[in-house]
Write a structure and sequence with these properties.
This protein is of the alpha+beta class and 520 residues long. The protein has 17 helices and 17 strands. An 8-stranded mixed beta sheet has the order 7-11-12-17-16-15-14-13, sandwiched between helices. A 5-stranded mixed beta barrel has the order 2-3-4-6-5. It is globular, with a radius of gyration of 27 Å. It starts with a helix and ends in a 20-residue tail after the last helix. 34% of the residues are buried. The structure holds 4-amino-1,4-dioxobutan-2-aminium adenosine-5'-monophosphate and magnesium ion (MG).
């Protein structure tokens, strides 16, 4: 198959049917201005206006507007194209013209087309379908512009992650998915029957990585991670991808520095390579440009002070006023658009307006939830007491108050995982951190220095009620050349959602798994 494609000259010249045309991808049109090319793809959208048609074709590398003139393609093909349904597969041939107003900056003046496979009544239309419908149709929804942009950015985020660690002297260690020991608490374990022995799916690769760090010094693992999360929040999946670095001979300051350099490198790489995708998604590009070291640093105790302060009360009131004002503005916009349609507009314009109205209504629905939750979240913050774990709404508040990500360090020992190192200067807290992304997004990284004293760790294993025999190998690491070490885990979907401005992380993985939703 590969040979066949190579010999058909797909990338450079010629193609299966048209010997003389240049078969090309939309992303390469810039190299063929005024030349004749052939593009194979799918019909993304179309509209007709008398003797002219405008077809938007996508081919996996971008979108391109094709201008079809009746005189250039003949009556029969003109009529066929006019009735071609969305997502029909087709091959188009034409002359490349540069046009700033066109999607992608180029257009094709069509001279020929071949319909490869027509699609009739494509189920996804520009109207507002609702989340459930789109998740059930994820196999098709992946073709949408939003999903395409997010998928491309996710790809680059993953590449940037690997590049950062590979270029910084880390060794990749693939940790097991069937695991015997618990890293992140028993409540979120997925048990599996492993030939009669109960094992569970990895919640983290960290404990195995700690072993590898004592061999290689700087290591990382990167893979799917499983948590039986019983929460249906926008931040939780039951299967997600996590990258975890682990470093021997590092302290908390060293970890924070590593994390801020790492996160900044990912964001800057996406900015360099995906400006147009970010624009299509409506991401805040100016805000992303500010994601450079150093990030903010607060201790958990300082966060508690902020949450219960007058400043926080005022901040929440300001937020509420902002939501209400935006809602009123959107309602006015909808009225104006409805009036425009009532006045009579062409079909394609009607569809465009319908999509705009659907978008505005979706945003209003979001705002209504925020307006309802705001007083609850304000109260939770005001009543926060030292010793509790930070909740999602508390994280959101801190995250909204800062335009750069914020490290929150030194949480109470009781609310954090058993492996975190007790701070020897204040035994009530551990040497850990969460990184709260900016713009209200909340936690994208959790990490810590690890307990390196054998007896303290054994005591913690016992207090958790774990069987010390199962943890024998992990405890061994503290017997044979134990050193200060630590690491962190970054969730890919949360990071992609934060960068793209996507509200729910389920949109940031191709086939999401959630507690109540596994459709395809
Ligand atoms: O904070 P967490 O639970 O930390 C760990 O698993 C450590 N063992 C990491 C380490 O120190 N090596 O998870 C780390 C990150 C979170 O900050 C979040 O980005 C992501 O993993 N995450 C989830 N993402 C989506 N859905 C979930 N249910 C997630 N749980 C955690
Ligand atoms: Mg965490």
């Amino acid at each position: 198959m590969l040979l066949a494609l190579a010999s058909s000259g797909w990338h450079d010249c010629g193609n299966l049917n048209r010997e003389n045309d240049m078969k090309t991808y939309i992303s390469q049109l810039k190299d063929h201005i005024d030349g004749q090319v052939t593009v194979s793809g799918w019909l993304y959208n179309s509209r007709a206006s008398g003797k002219l048609q405008f077809l938007i074709v996508r081919d996996g590398t971008g979108l391109c507007q094709c201008i079809v003139e009746k005189g250039s393609v003949g009556d029969e093909l003109f009529a066929q194209l006019k009735h071609l349904g969305r997502e029909s597969a087709l091959t188009v041939t034409g002359t490349v013209r540069s046009d700033d107003r066109s999607v992608g900056g180029f257009e094709l003046a069509l001279t020929d087309a071949e319909i490869v496979c027509p699609a009739v009544d494509y189920p996804i239309t520009p109207k507002d379908h609702g989340v459930d419908f789109l998740l059930k149709h994820r196999h098709l929804h992946l073709r949408s512009q939003r999903q395409w942009c997010i998928g491309r950015i996710r790809h680059t985020v993953i590449d940037a992650i690997r590049r950062f660690f590979n270029d910084s002297g880390f060794t990749l260690i693939d940790t097991p998915i069937f695991t015997t020991i618990v890293g992140e608490g028993e409540q979120t374990l997925f048990e599996v029957d492993y030939f009669g022995t109960p094992l569970h799916l990895a919640q983290t690769g960290q404990l195995y990585l700690e072993s590898a760090a004592m061999s290689f010094g700087k290591v990382y693992c990167f893979g799917p991670t499983f948590r039986a999360e019983k929460s249906k929040t926008r931040r939780h999946l039951t299967e997600f991808w996590m990258v975890e670095p682990e470093v021997a001979y590092i302290d908390l300051d060293g970890l924070l520095e590593l994390a801020e350099n790492f996160v900044s490198s990912i964001v800057q790489r996406v900015l360099t390579e995906h400006k147009s995708e970010l624009e299509t998604l409506g991401a805040d590009i100016e805000a992303l440009k500010k994601i450079t070291p150093p990030f903010n640093r607060l201790t958990y105790s300082q966060v508690v002070e902020i949450l219960i302060s007058e400043k926080c009360v005022d901040f929440m009131a300001g937020q509420l006023a902002g939501f209400n004002a935006e809602k009123t503005e959107l309602e006015d916009q909808i009225k104006a658009l409805e009036k425009e349609v009532a006045g009579g507009v062409k079909k394609w314009k009607q569809e465009k307006i319908a999509a705009e109205i659907a978008q505005a209504k979706a945003r209003i629905a979001e705002l209504e939830v925020k307006i309802e939750n705001n007083p609850k979240h304000a109260r939770l913050a005001a009543e926060f007491r030292w010793g509790k774990d930070l909740g999602g709404s508390d994280e959101t508040i801190i995250s909204l108050m800062h335009d750069k990500p914020t490290f929150v360090t030194h949480y109470p020992r009781e609310v954090k995982a058993f492996y975190m190192k007790t701070d020897r200067a204040n035994e009530k807290v551990v040497e850990n951190f969460d990184l709260l992304a900016s713009a209200g997004f909340g936690e994208i990284i959790g990490g810590s220095v690890r307990e390196d004293d054998h007896d303290i760790l054994l005591d913690k294993v016992n207090k958790e009620g774990y069987n010390p025999e199962t943890y024998q190998w992990y405890l061994d690491l503290r017997k044979y050349g134990s050193v200060p070490h630590g690491g962190f885990g970054l969730g890919v979907e949360r990071t992609v959602a934060w960068i793209t401005g996507e509200k729910h992380i389920r949109q940031c993985i191709a086939f999401p798994r959630m507690m109540d939703k596994v459709y395809i």
